[in-house]
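Let us work through a complete example step by step.
Step 1: write down the sequence.
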Amino acid sequence: MNVNLPEAVLLRPRMYTLGGTFEEVIAFLEGYYSGMAKGNPYAIPVLEWASFRTWLSEKMGLAPSEVFAKFRNLHADGPAALAGMQNCLSEFRAEMKKRQEKTLPTYSGKGRPEQKS
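Step 2: predict the structure and record it as tokens.
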């Protein structure tokens, strides 16, 4: 099982934050990727997190800067918001995987790789 940092933090929030609250988890992840972006704004994890935030904001019809606060307010409590965020992240990763499979070239072993359409 290949788990990225956001998935790991959402699965075990108290391993990464003091209280394991939704707000702490989001602050930790936003701070982590913001700091990473200072060193390399094009690092794949930075781009993936930004893509997830954009995807979620489009799905919810909100500005990216509002999405996490509004997401939390839509849930009865912090644990429900964390579970909901896990589901959204899984859905996002599944969509990205499908998109990659459609665009990656295939190779039959002869000649040049063929582009999927």
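Step 3: interpret the result. The radius of gyration is 17 Å.
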